[in-house]
Amino acid sequence: MKKLSLLLPIICSFPAHADFSRGKTYQPSNSIDLMEQRTEYKRALDLLKTNQFTKFSKTKPKLKNYILYPYLDYKEKIYRISRFKEKDILKFVGDYSDTPLTQPLIEHWLRNLARRGHWKTFLRNYDKRKKPSRELECHRSYALYKKSSRKEGLEKAAQLWTVGFSQPKECDPVFYLLNSKGEITADRAWTRLGLSIKANERQLAKYLLRYIDQNRQKDAANYRLVHSRPSTIRNIENFSSDSPSNREVVLHGINRLSRTNPAIALKLMNEYRKKLKFKDNALEQTYRKIGISLARMAKDYELIESLPIKLRAHPDLVEARIRQSLRLKDWGNAIVLINLLPEEEKKSQKWRYWKARVLDFSGDPADRRIAHSIYQELSEVRSYYGFLSADIIGSPYNYQHQISDISFEETKKLENIPGIKRSLELFALGERSKARQEWYLAVSGFSETESKIASRLAIRWGWHKASIQTMIMTESWDNLDERFPTAYKDVFTKYARQKNLPVEWSLAVARQESAFMPDAKSRAGARGLMQLMPSTARLVAKGIGTSYSKNRRLLEIDLNIKLGTTYLRWMLDRYNNNRILASAAYNAGPGNVDKWINPQVPFDVWIEIIPFPETRNYVKNVLAFSAIYSYLLNQEAPLIYIAEKKEFESASAINTGSN
């Protein structure tokens, strides 16, 4: 019994390939070769990590036939890079060109060559790195200066220096040369100061003051001042110099002020325009930004129509003004502005829908017939606007669901392609990031048919992100089973029942947030399937008495779904069971949604005028995805429930159909 208890964890942890793709002819295998290979592979990696290279050298040959042998070879070269000659590295690149390992190895090797000062070999092989890091770019400029062309080396160094962010320490040697040769000119320093301020790199901007010439010290100080305190631009006397640097400072200050007070920004811009000679393009762009802010905040058109700007030349301003008209329920002005959009924009589902909506408010039967015709066309499309249109004319949703006829033999054949085989083995070992790299490289050269087979294979393995991404890469939009897998259905259903949530909605949120990637991590710090911020997760966990201390636990599927669905329930409670508002709050935070709530407009207008573009698209996607999931779950729920619409109908009834 003791032996059995020791073997069970190994068997559970390392399932063989065949167990993931069983067919009618499946026979359990008694072979433990694969499990032994996995054990030896992990042991070999541990030997490398602990510098036991002699033992590693004895273990490595045993794994020559293991599918992940290239990764072992790669790791050895990474750990012992200085021992390998140029021909060894190039042989690896040639032997494993079908893996994602060659480019990282070249990067690592080139960095090692730079550290050892092997500049000729470095330059000879630099172009083999397709997307060199900033560190490598810095090394290259130094290498060019030392071994090839001093002029070219300094030119590259100047390009690297003149950016709005701090470069890595590897740039220091070549930047020292750049400075010692007098190439950090006053104009170059001013350019970098402006870039750093606009990138909000305040510490870098402060550091750069040492390079600013005496004549522009006041302007540099003002530049930093208007960035942190835009209201200081009101003191026109302090910004009266008609120098290029002061004009740049003024425009930056006006742009910053326009974010919060566009009316004052416009008034000041008109005053400064009388005193300073701005370039036409810079002036035009500043008025454009003021206009976009005015469209978002103003209660009328008086100021925005006074802008000295060619409206048709700025589609983003036209769109902002359309949203302003929708917010003000000025349907006539909205249709005029829609007609000012570029032709391609006018053909988009979004603006075709809004053209129909505003025409539908018309008392003219001809306008309403045009609206009905547009609704009819849009209702044939599976999308947010297609579903909205179908609801208005009372037609069923057209899901355009295409079911692929893929045999088990086809998936097994694809499973034996080396790149796919490596990715699945990495996935089985829990190396999800490496598995994704292998998978995406392998499927990038697939035909549409092969991609559909690959997606089905990924679903068979429970690898939902790979299935979704593969369909996106080949634009196979109608394969709903592969694009919208019901991932972790049992877990979502369990918590949906506990929290009294629509399960299709919680699935839609997870699909939008992470595409069902359990190890997803955003730049902002959100983690897991439902992309929870650690602070939010701790708050929710405390609220329901769940133990949660370490952030890595958010990568646990059950815990992440439990906390995420609880937070969704909280948002529903906060917003009277309205998924529109709750979805927006899940993305942008309830504090923002509380400020945006406006029951004076129809629900579709409210969604269209959400101030944050990311949240606006997020809400549309989640609602559409929820409708798709309801279809896949055989529930047929509507895009928007009647009760949700009524939240926005207190002061403005929605026109629910055309005659």
Short structural summary:
This protein is mainly alpha-helical. Helices cover 63% and strands 0% of the residues. The protein has 37 helices and no strands.
Structure description:
The chain is mainly α and 659 residues long. Among the domains are: 408-477, Lytic transglycosylase, superhelical linker domain (Methyltransferase, Methionine Synthase (B12-binding Domains), Chain A, domain 1, Orthogonal Bundle); 489-646, Lysozyme (Orthogonal Bundle). It has helices at 2-13, 33-49, 53-59, 69-79, 86-95, 102-116, 119-125, 134-147, 150-161, 172-180, 186-198, 202-208, 217-228, 244-258, 262-275, 280-297, 315-327, 331-338, 343-346, 349-360, 365-378, 384-393, 408-415, 418-428, 432-443, 448-460, 464-473, 480-483, 489-499, 503-514, 534-544, 557-574, 579-588, 590-596, 603-608, 613-632, 642-646. Helix 30 (503-514) crosses helix 36 (613-632). The longest helix has 20 residues, at 613-632.
Specify Rg, calculated over alpha carbons. 30 Å
CATH fold assignment of one domain: Lysozyme
The total strand number stands at 0
Overall helicity: 55-70%
Helix/strand class: mainly alpha
How would a crystallographer describe the biggest sheet? none
**C-alpha termini separation:** 77 Å
Helix count, DSSP H or I runs of 4 or more residues: 37
Named at the architecture level, the CATH assignment of one domain is Orthogonal Bundle
What is the CATH domain class of one domain? Answer: Mainly Alpha
The average pLDDT is 92
β-strand percent reads under 5%
Tell me the overall shape. Answer: globular
Q: Uncertain runs with pLDDT below 50, 5 residues or more?
A: 1-23, 651-659
